[in-house]
Automatic annotation (TrEMBL):
Domain (Translation initiation factor 3 N-terminal): residue spans on this chain: 34-100
Residue ranges of domain Translation initiation factor 3 C-terminal in the record: 114-189
Compositional bias (Basic and acidic residues): 22-34
Listed name of the protein: Translation initiation factor 3 N-terminal domain-containing protein
Region (Disordered): 17-38
UniProt record similarity statement: Belongs to the IF-3 family.
Length: 199
């Protein structure tokens, strides 16, 4: 009788940790099931041609013939929904997109924009210097207010601003403007690498 109790105690002693580890693994795993991890007898396979109800073995065979992975994309459906693609490649591309998006968001400076001003008497050479300055500011994550002031009789502020905008339009997204007033005109710009401004 004591031998049987000892045997039960040993079985319970070894069984409990295994069960606990399994629950922990299921809880920690946030990734979809792949290939042999998929145990459903049949799956709904989604392809470019449509979706088909097939056995797990047939879906696996298709994936292997293409040297790709069978990936469960919806485990809650009955039967579960699967797709065939290179899981590691897709995961890598997604990580790169997220990294780039995060980098761009964090690089865009907050706060009021920097301001660059130029007058109607500015030479073309000096105007290009101002445009290069705006490019550097935008590249480093600043929003820039480009303001044309002190128009001349032959050159109004709107035309001045249009000339300046042409020097930076390949690198700039206009956030606001152009705003044209009697004695000045301005636009607020950001670099194109930070995406389209929110409306």
């Amino acid at each position: 009788h004591s031998v049987q109790l000892d045997a039960c105690h040993i079985v319970r002693h070894y069984a409990a940790p295994v069960q606990g580890n399994q629950k922990k693994e299921d809880k920690d795993s946030g990734e979809p099931k792949l290939n042999e991890q998929i145990t459903a007898p049949s799956v709904r396979l989604v392809t470019a041609e449509g979706h088909f109800l097939v056995s797990r073995y047939e879906a696996m065979a298709r994936a292997k013939s293409l040297n790709l992975d069978l990936v469960m994309v919806d485990a809650q459906a009955t039967p579960p929904v699967c797709k065939i693609f290179d899981f590691n490649k897709e995961k890598y591309l997604q990580q790169m997109k997220e990294k780039e998006r995060s980098k761009m968001k964090s690089a865009l400076k907050k706060g009021p924009p920097k301001e660059i001003r130029f007058t109607g008497k500015i030479t073309q050479k000096d105007l290009q210097v101002k445009a290069d300055m705006v490019r550097r500011l935008m590249e480093s994550g600043h929003r820039v207010k480009c303001t044309a002031i002190e128009p001349t009789e032959s050159l109004d502020s709107e035309t001045m601003l249009a000339r300046f905008s042409n020097l930076i339009d390949d690198a700039a997204h206009v956030e606001s403007g152009p705003c044209v007033e009697k004695k000045q005109a301005y636009i607020v710009v950001r670099h194109v690498k930070f995406g389209t401004p929110k409306k």
